[in-house]
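Purpose: get a first structural picture of the assembly so the mutagenesis plan has something to point at.
Setup: two entries, given in the order below. No constraints added.
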Amino acid sequence: MIGFSIAVGIVLILAILLLIFRLHTLVNVMKQSDKKVGSGSNKTNALLFIVFMVVSFVLLFWYSVKNFHVYQLPIASEHGVITDRLFWITMGITGVVFILTQILLFYFPFKYQHSPKRKALYFPDNNRLEFIWTIVPAVVLTALVVYGLSVWNKVMSPAPKNAEIIEIMGYQFAWKVRYPGSDETLGAYDFRKIDAVNDFGLDFTDRAAFDDFSPRELHLPKGQPVEFHIRARDVLHSVFAPHFRLKMDAVPGMPTRFWFIPTKSTADMRVETGNPEFNYEIACTEVCGRGHFSMRLLVVVDEPADYEKWKSEQKPWLSKNPEYLAKVPENLKELAMIKSQIETTTLN
Amino acid sequence: MASTVVDEHIDHAVEDHAHEHHDNFITKYIFSTDHKTIAKQYLISGIFWALIGGFLSLVFRLQLGFPNAQLEWLRPLMGKWITTTGKLDPEFYLALVTMHGTIMVFFVLTAGLSGTFSNFLIPLQIGARDMASGFMNMLSYWFFFVSSVVMFISLFIETGPASGGWVIYPPLSALPQAMSGSGLGMTMWLIAMALFIVSTLLGGINYITTIINLRTIGMSFLKLPLTIWSFFLTAIIGLLSFPVLFGAALLLIFDRSFGTSFYLSDIYIGGEALPNMGGSPILFQHLFWFLGHPEVYIVLLPALGITSEIIATNSRKPIFGYKAMIISMLGITVLSFVVWAHHMFVSGMNPFLGSIFMLLTLIIAVPSAVKVFNYLTTLWKGNIIFTPAMLFSIGLVSFFISGGLTGLFVGNSAIDIQLHDTYFIVAHFHLVMGSAAFFGMMAGVYHWFPKMFGRMMDSKLGYIHFWISFVGIYMVFFPMHYIGIAGFPRRYYSFTNFDAFSTFVDLNAFVSIAAIITFAAQLIFLFNFFYSIFKGKKAPLNPWHSNTLEWTTPRLPGHGNWPGELPTVHRWPYDYSKPGAKEDFIPQTVPLSETPESNLQHEAKIVAELKSKVKS
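Result (structure tokens, whole complex):
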């Protein structure tokens, strides 16, 4: 019943609108207002441009200032400081151009709205003007390019030798992380060795794999270079750590890398943001299927000493899954047991 | 020489006239070879697709703006894609964004825009009877139609339409086990796009041939309206880039169906390791964006061409820097082919490639900037009449500035690390490409409606349509910049899983409401459009006092466009408000010798030379 009355209501409103439209057309025919140029609507439209411009600029500045802390995430990496500086310099330059050109675009229609008394200026070209506004943007853009290149090259430079190497692997729909363990070398892997337990496809013929460990959370040392070795197991994913200004795709069959230096521990950030529950997160930014929006990885940045302590407490993957010792070649079994601390924890 | 050309044209006219008597409903309205009818077919199809594409976006905006809302009421339409708890299915959410993108980019802003206006305006503005090949032109539309049918049906199949994003990156799009949309839906997507590419190529070859070969007497390249220049360059871009997408799609079809490994390697999915080795997903991205980026200009250039024409006409001024505009468009055309990898800065490709593509990308901003300054100077000291078409053109320039400037952020690889695949990108391309091209299309419809249907659209309704759309579009896309700077990734079903993305709940709701209002405003246009086709006021021959050739045809041009001889062109199309002239416009068909009072120095010289030739 309610549905029916709503339908009737909508039909009635439409009918009324149609009647108004019809009346307005007929009145126009009577007044012959469509024969005139620069009629009342011309003035209204010209004025509306000015109103639109003023209201929009007020809204723009008000919102941008008021919510600055909401959209500007705190920066927690060394390169993040320089990429953000580049961002805000670009914002300054484009902001000026934006405001100037939009003002002209809305002011000219108002100022030069049609008047039967005036004739437009016949001004087909002017090479000097064209030259100026080719050269000026070109110079400004060159500056931005040069600056941008220097930043890009710094960010993408090879990682320092002492960087902590951590593997991040994306799969539908989560991340797995792997640390190289005490030998500081990630063990080899092969996607054909992946099974329900061995998510990484660890290759146990490689002795470097014996002490690799895979925690549930990603821990990073504050103030030390870290290099992510990124790969994907099924489809494309993308590692995105917004506070570190870090993003790199995870590609099946093509491992990628990104190195950076975290500058603030989780505890530091909790103080800075005033949020005792603050946590760093990694999200996926390459569409990967149904659970794309839920690929969250918790990241903890520790003080270097805490980080080392945490690392020493981690158990190698092999020790948690001792049945995989069977895959280790006979001649390496003993080494594997030592490195993975199986039954020999006292020896280490 | 000239006289034989004229004779030929007259012969054609007689032939065409004879044909008209045999037209029945089917040859006149369905399998028509008349460029004007084909243009209208494209326009109506484009409007149909725009409504579908717009509607899809409303559904996912509901999800984003009101994540807790009950969507049970959509069940009659969406069936099992509404879960038992009355929520949108996360996988269908991805299908919605994918199909929204595909439909808007290809079916609305490529076919709907180029298809409509290239077809309609090229013969009319260069003074030709029809396209070079009417039959190919008809084929072009009907390939598009079949493509549309396939794509439309894919919306309703049980496993859902393609859902890996409009860029259909493999392996996601190659593996049905990765998501259900990568099954039959993806197959249909690929078939539809293959047909679509055939249609685009057939159309493009025709546009280029027609513009080169069928210009009327006196219509040199430097007397062409900028609309024609833009359609010409657009067709060239399409002709060179669409085949690459065809190749990319073909290899993807092989990977999907015939076990090849062009894009696939080292994959473990659904509990098994796949046998594919040695392929590269990055290869697909290169191939896709080799079309994908020029595609942006395929969408944008016609809109800019249309705007140039409308802004000049309604400012009653010549377009400022006609040659600079052409050079800018040429520059954009060439550069559009060498910037594609700026979509891939963080794809894992070599950072050195990133530097090169960043350099080239920022160069393309220069011709774009020149165009904006030229538009502004055209408005300066004009005598501006606000027709709805003019309002939409000014709106386009505003979007072009707003969205173009953010291109300087995302084109800079170092900044793009943070902004890539966030809402900042969504804001950027919806303004600079989506909304700008959409406004160009609307401007074109309002401006050339009188020529298409011989009747006028209601301008008051046009004003209302413009203002709600203009304000609405800014309300939808401007806030997305903030959301993007905050790092919100695109194609997210919901943001509740992350602490970092827990803000902006209110702003997302605001955007969704703005989107609904903007969509509703398009219904005003629909009413105005269809009502005016049948009941609109009869249009005068040249309602906007414009110079171009299409306004010298009868109110409803028949087959062959001009009864009798084709018009001869004597001047460029932008003689508005020429000092000394009686009226504020001089059509292209008026010889210089008839306007001694307004001729410029070099024009007077030409007239004098001609006279002395005639005497001798």
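Chain A touches chain B through 115 residues (CB under 8 Å).
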